[in-house]
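Before relying on records like the one below, remember that each one covers exactly one chain. Contacts with other chains, cofactors or solvent are not represented anywhere in the record.
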Amino acid sequence: MSQDATGADTRAMTRLVIFDFDGVVVDSEPISLSTLRDTLAHFGLDLTIDAVRARFLGNSVPRIAQAIRAETGRDQPGFAAHWYDMLFARFRAELRAMPGITELLDALDRRGVAYCIASGSAYQRLDVSLEVTGLAPRFAGRVFSADLVLRGKPAPDLFLLAAERMGVAPGECLVVEDAPAGIEAARAAGMRALGFVGGGHLAALAQSHGVLLTERGAERVLTALDEVTASL
C-alpha cells in the first residue's frame, strides 16, 4: 500500500480490473496441465506434472514450443494442434467457470469498475473456454490475448495493451493473476497485482505458491474471488 507522510492511503482509484484467464476466470489449469504433460511427452519432453506447472504455468504456446525446441533440438510445428485437440475435447466435457466469478463481475458492474481479460492463451482457446462456460457475453469486446503482442508475460506488453484499449492508465489498473510470470508482467507494467490461489491446480500448493506470488510482487494473495473487492 502506498502512503503519504500522514499515513493516508495514496493509491490511485481502481478503474479497471484485469483478469488473467486460465486458473482465475475458469478452473481450467488441472485439465490444461494434464493434457500439456501428455503432449510434451509425445514431442519428446517427459516431465512430471509438478515440473510442467513450475515451468509453463501462465506461458503462451509459442514460449512452450520454444522450450521444446531448445531441449529436443527440433522444431515442433504440430505441437499446438496436437495439444488443442486433446484440450478442447476435455474442455467441452469438463470445464467450469471459477466459483464466484459471476458474482464478482456483478459487483464490479454495480461499482462502475471496468474489467477485461489479458491472457497468455491464444484466442482460439479463449473463445472455446468462454463459450463452454457461458461467460462470452460478459467479456464481449474485452478479451486480449498474447496473440496481439510480440512478447508475452512476463513482459508487460499485454497488460499495457489491455489498459490502452480500455482507456485506463496503468496506475489505475488492478491485475488478478495465478502465475508468477503474470505477477511479474503486472508489476513491470506499473500495475497493482493480486495473487490468486483458488484454482484446482493449486489445491495442495496454495501456501507455497502464494509465497512465490508474493515474492514476485503480489500485494495480497487471495483464495477466493470474492476477496477481490476488498482491494479496490
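Residues 79-94 form the longest helix (16 residues).
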